[in-house]
Amino acid sequence: MGGEGEGRLFETRVRSGRTWYKLYAASVCGGVCLTWVYRATNIPEIGENGRWAWMGMLVAELCFGFYWVLTQSFRWCPIYHRTFKERLSQKYGNELPPVDIFVCTADPTIEPPVLVMNTVLSVMAYDYPPEKLSIYVSDDGASELTFCALLEATDFVRHWISFCKRFNVEPRSPSAYFSSPELHDLRYASESDRIKEMYYAMEDRIKVATNFDRVASGVNNQHKGFSEWNSQITPGNHQAIVQILIDGRDQNATDIEGNTLPTLVYLSREKRPQYPHNFKAGALNALIRVSSEISNSPVILNVDCDMYSNSSESVKNAMCFFLDEQSGQQIGYVQFPQNFNNLDKNNIYGDYISIINEVEMAGLGDSIYLGTGCFHRRESLCGHKYSEHCRMLRDMWNQVKMRKPEESTSFLEERARDLASCTYEQNTNWGKDIGIKYGCLVEDVVTGLSIQMNGWRSIYYNPSPKGFLGISPTTLSQLLVQHKRWSEGLFQTFLSKYCPFLYGYGKIELRLQMSYATYMLWAPMSLPTLYYVTIPSLCLLKGIPLYPRISSSWFPVFVYVIIGTQAYSLGEALWCQQSFRSWWNMQRMRLMRRTCSYFFSLLETTMQSLGLGKSSFDITAKIAADHEALERLKKGVMEFGSSSPMFSVLAAIAMLNLLCLVASVIMAVVREGFKDQLALQFLLCGMLVMLNLPIYHGMFLRKDRGRLPTFLALESCLIAALACLLSLY
Questions:
Q1: N or C: which end of the chain has fewer CB within 10 A?
Q2: How far is CA 337 from CA 320, 353, 459, 460, in A?
Q3: Stated pTM of the model
Q4: Is 444 noted as a catalytic residue in this protein?
Q5: What does the H/E/C string look like for 198-250?
Q6: Closest CA to 24 of 652, 563, 590, 725
Q7: Do residues 264 and 124 lie in contact, with contact meaning Cβ atoms separated by under 8 Å?
């Protein structure tokens, strides 16, 4: 899309070394096809032991092979982008487009007000003309505590922005900055200590209010906005609340050095039990409408409340794409990757995000919309189609709403309340053709796909330092539930009219269609995985071979496919600066996600299709369960603790493979020999046992609160033993 040139604001390059990769991929593809040939030509005769197990292996390996082909959409021709911010500054100076920034929160218990406040402070301190920034906080929980935290921030931000810009502080989230002493410069230590003291005093006040679940007496007299709350308000039943906390156009809204402050607006859209609120999608659409009344900036950035800005240059990086004279007018959104700052060094929960960021998302010409850390052109988000007549952002600046003298803050707040009412969207195209899409758990993915279908291009930009940092799940239960929600929504999308192969046919590239399908097929891929981690082990126990013997000419084919794919996976992880142990944990978590999260999402999607259930939106907790759980996370100990049905499945599979392996070894010793045609099955069963070591540890050896419950361990042992006994008859 972008090439290097004197006036270009960004360039796009293809990564080197693709010829070698294509040769490797072709060889693996050939090996996969040969395994299919072996399966199809060696099916046991009718009545022979293992016939149905063999045919199941053929189906499972066909699924794995097809899915592997889909993943090549990321790796076949990966590209990267580089921006030229110095050219942007030379060309435009401070004459840059205004930006509206949306920060979404929904529950002060799961998403603490201190967390929200830090994210807001980080985006208010961008290295960007402050009069061009307007920050909107959507509080779907209608929490007086969140409002109080933002009000506290309005005073602190006057000192914080000045401090950040004078000393070029990074990152600009106070919590992240002050918790990293290595970032502090002794040249301004006294000033840093003063700001730090102010910050922690403010944080303590907010935490005290949060712990007591009420605002301190006297505080609610400090702002008229507190009058909106009364004993009748609940998160699901309240009027629209709009408060402009900092009016950036007010000459008195300045920092301690007299510089203009960004606009800050608090919004809690109206909710009534009889009207659907459409979760986060509904909140974002309300923000789009309210912001159009107050600032109407041509560019919108949306971030989750736990995803603070890690680089003050992110807005300028995005503008390098939007303002590029050759390609900028066609770009609908610029997606920054999701990164996390709370991963332990060995990545105990096998977070796959580094591979997604560095390999998968980077391999596409366009980007999937991830729901956070994304800069949108407002017109693309509002359903407008791209055409060659679309104007550059620089030509749209004069359309930005300029407040008339008679438009006071109170007047704007009143107008905005109407736009945030629960009845505003009735009989309109909001959630259909305008704004974020409704009716799906992964509204972001569907919205991004629809924007691309309207002719807009998208950019995936992975800068250094990272643009945004957030919080990943800190317990296994949180992680599995999060992936269950994602995979359920993605599979529902695949089964809907938004299936990329149907909806995108002829409008977006096949490679992009394949990349969407890679994620949308997470749920059904649980079935071949479950088959592969149970049936070969049970057949090993009964002595039924499912792979060629060592002396067979087919044996090297299977070995090459297995070793080749795993060696490349390891090399990919090492290239992404992950350790061998981290890669091993990734393999473990990939197995757990497929056999639990994706399987349960497949079940729920099937039940919903039969009218036996409905979707629910579960918010992932943004804090550790307790201090002890956090300490175990630091030590790299997996957190179980609960009696989730997912853990029952994990433990049963782990015990089944352990019993099959032990029994097979005993039988081999008793019979004084081991059948060489069972070698690969023995290896597979052994690897599964090794991957499940943390589960055995949690079942039998741990005594802390994070272990697997005793009754669940006994139940799993019983199920596994019963399955082994039944397989012998």
A1: C
A2: 17, 9, 11, 8
A3: 0.93
A4: yes
A5: HHHHHHHHHHHHHHHCCCCCCHHHCCHHHHHCCCCCECCEECCEEEEEECCCC
A6: 563
A7: yes
* Nearest in space to 335 (alpha carbons), one of 286, 298, 291, 301: 301
Instruction: Region of 455 please: left (phi>0), alpha (psi -120 to 50) or beta.
Output: left
Q: Letter for the amino acid at 6?
A: E
Place of tokens 């063999």: 54
What are the φ/ψ torsions at residue 679 (nearest 5 degrees)?
A: -60, -45
- Which residue reads 């279908």 in tokens? 453
**Strand ranges across the sheet with 299-304:** 241-246, 263-268, 133-139, 99-105, 299-304, 374-377, 331-335, 457-460
Please tell me the predicted confidence (pLDDT) of residue 615. Answer: 61
Say how far apart CA 642 and CA 39 lie, in whole Å: 41
Q: With residue 600 as reference, give the H or E element that holds it.
A: helix 598-609
Residues (pLDDT < 50) of the chain are none
Maximum Cα interatomic distance, the chain, rounded to a whole number of Å: 95
Q: Report H helices in 500-579.
A: 500-503, 510-520, 526-532, 535-542, 555-575
Beta bridge mates, 299: 99, 377
Task: Identify whether the C-beta of residue 504 lies closer than 8 Å to the C-beta of residue 573.
Answer: no
Q: 611: phi > 0 → left, psi -120 to 50 → alpha, else beta; which?
A: left
Q: What pLDDT was estimated at residue 563?
A: 96
304 included as an active-site residue = no
User: What is the token pair recorded at 122?
Assistant: 């980080």
Helix (H, G, I), strand (E, B) or coil at 424: coil
- As given in the structure block, the two tokens for residue 442 are 């992964």
* C-beta separation of 527 from 602 below 8 A: yes
- Amino acid of residue 368: I
Distance between CA atoms of residues 558 and 545, nearest Å? 14
**β-bridge pairing 374-377 and 299-304:** antiparallel
Length of the chain: 729
Report CA Rg, the chain.
28
Neighbours of 262 (CB within 10 A): 24
For residues 452 and 383, what is the distance between their CA atoms, to the nearest angstrom?
11
* Pairing mode of beta strands 263-268, 374-377: unpaired
* 206 backbone dihedrals φ, ψ, rounded to 5°: -70, -40
pLDDT of residue 407: 72
Q: What is the pLDDT of residue 3?
A: 54
Catalytic residue, candidates 100, 304, 351, 444: 444
Active-site annotation holder among 139, 140, 304, 306: 140
* DSSP state at residue 505: T
Query: How far apart are the C-alpha atoms of 211 and 318, rounded to whole Å?
Result: 39
Residue pointed to by tokens 């560019």: 299
Which residue, among 278, 322, 268, has the nearest Cα to 300 in the 3D structure?
Answer: 322
18: tokens are 């693709």
- From CA 332, how far away is CA 384, in angstroms rounded? 10
Would you state the pLDDT for residue 574? 92
Task: For residue 488, give the nearest of 565, 397, 602 by alpha carbon.
Answer: 602
